[in-house]
């Protein structure tokens, strides 16, 4: 294993007037450490397309998880999928990407737009082998991964965007690659990159998509550890132990909570310098402490981070808020969502007397629930999470 990891993010828009998406994505972690991503595009739109794409992606991901080779999976699907009698095309197309030990990517593409690979900021023409399986033309590739590689998988709703409006013949794959290359060096997450692409597709459709459009982005990057301290320990005698473990960890250090930051200040022997400016009127100001990368208030700030995390996993519309603002919640969100790959939570179980006021909607259980829900959201983002309680 190397020090690389895959950041995976995807976003879809539905055909205008439809409540279900005809595209479907499955991401499966296998026992051998590899990751399989399947993007299936059902014929047409609506319920039928949604069922067909879901079945296709589930069958492929289940077979690969069971240890079958990608060739076996493709042969089974290609032989199983019926062909529309009117249009003469399969009821579902698909793209499969298998990432092995974060060193190598195997691509199998059937009738979806060709996967874009951005390497060193430019569209990279990787080798493709054409195969015929059960009468269907399949492209297969094996690519050695490099840090900074960005793969863009998509359904045909992306290159079809703008037909008859902005473009006579749609948005060509080469043009999409050129458009996405402008964001290559910015450092956006895979989720944000997929959101940028789909938002542009939606604009080209004049916000009335004539087809389902899905983009799945895979970004190869180095692992980045992050540590977050939230709350003092239930036993005061464990304070030094908790602080010692927290500050000895590799990576950046985030401290959440007034009492917690005061204890950290005493442990480090450094002054805690609170700031008085409210960047966001609903989020308490941050503080400065030498030895820590960020110091914020506790429950209110972390609750806002959780709100942003849930939105990130859904529509990612709140990115325009947390992506640029300088309040504590926004800064934590950027560190956890964009920078971190491995996150260590150090959570104190001490009950804060200030939270026992019956007029306040904050109590110990809510604090623990915040940690649980935020950890779950971060796991869904593909982060490695470890939570230690004191």
Could you walk me through the main structural features you see in this protein, from its secondary elements to its overall organization?
- There is one protein chain.
- This protein is α+β, with helices and mostly antiparallel strands.
- It folds into 2 domains: 4-222, Phosphatase 2c, domain 1, CATH 3.60.40; 225-389, no CATH class.
- It is 32% helix and 28% strand.
- The chain contains 10 helices and 18 strands.
- The protein has helices at residues 46-65, 70-80, 173-181, 190-204, 239-248, 258-268, 299-313, 319-322, 328-339, 364-380, and strands at 4-13, 23-29, 35-42, 92-100, 104-110, 116-119, 122-123, 129-133, 136-144, 150-154, 213-222, 225-230, 252-256, 272-274, 287-289, 294-296, 342-347, 384-389.
- Helix 7 runs parallel beside helix 10.
- The protein is elongated, with a radius of gyration of 24 Å.
- The two termini are 32 Å apart.
- The mean pLDDT is 89.
Describe the structure using short key phrases.
2 domains, 32% helix, alpha+beta, 390 residues, 18 strands, 6-stranded antiparallel beta sheet, elongated, Phosphatase 2c, domain 1
């Amino acid at each position: 294993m190397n020090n690389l990891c895959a950041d995976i993010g995807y976003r879809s828009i539905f055909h205008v007037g439809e409540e279900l998406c005809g595209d479907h994505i499955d991401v499966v972690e296998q026992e051998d450490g590899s990751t399989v991503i399947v993007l299936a595009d059902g014929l047409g739109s609506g319920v039928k397309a949604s069922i067909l794409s879901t079945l296709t992606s589930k069958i492929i991901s289940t077979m690969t998880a069971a240890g079958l080779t990608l060739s076996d999976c493709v042969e089974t699907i290609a032989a199983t999928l019926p062909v529309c009698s009117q249009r003469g095309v399969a009821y579902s197309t698909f793209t499969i990407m298998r990432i092995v030990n974060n060193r190598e990517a195997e691509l199998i593409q059937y009738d979806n737009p060709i996967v874009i690979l951005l390497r060193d900021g430019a569209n990279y023409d990787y080798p493709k082998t054409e195969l015929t399986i059960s009468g269907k033309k399949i492209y297969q590739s094996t690519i050695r991964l490099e840090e900074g590689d960005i793969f863009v998988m998509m359904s045909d709703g992306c290159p079809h965007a703008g037909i008859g409006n902005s473009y006579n013949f749609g948005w060509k794959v080469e043009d999409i690659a050129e458009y996405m290359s402008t964001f290559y060096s910015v450092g956006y997450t895979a989720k944000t990159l997929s959101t940028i692409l789909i938002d542009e597709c939606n604009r080209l459709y004049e916000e009335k998509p004539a087809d389902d459009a899905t983009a799945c982005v895979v970004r190869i990057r180095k692992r980045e550890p992050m540590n977050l301290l939230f709350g003092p320990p239930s036993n005061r005698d464990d304070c030094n132990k908790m602080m010692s473990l927290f500050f000895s960890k590799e990576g950046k250090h985030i401290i959440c909570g007034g009492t917690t930051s005061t204890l950290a200040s005493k442990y480090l022997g450094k002054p805690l310098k609170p700031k008085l400016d409210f960047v966001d009127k609903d989020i308490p100001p941050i503080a400065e402490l030498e030895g820590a990368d960020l110091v914020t208030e506790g429950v209110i700030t972390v609750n806002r981070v959780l709100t942003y995390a849930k939105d990130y996993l859904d529509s990612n519309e709140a990115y325009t808020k947390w992506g640029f603002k300088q309040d504590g919640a926004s800064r934590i969100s950027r560190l956890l969502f964009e920078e971190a790959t491995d996150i260590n939570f150090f959570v104190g179980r001490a009950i804060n007397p200030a939270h026992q006021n019956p007029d306040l909607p904050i109590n110990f259980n809510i604090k623990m629930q915040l940690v649980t829900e935020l950890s779950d959201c971060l796991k869904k983002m593909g982060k490695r999470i470890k939570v230690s309680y004191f």
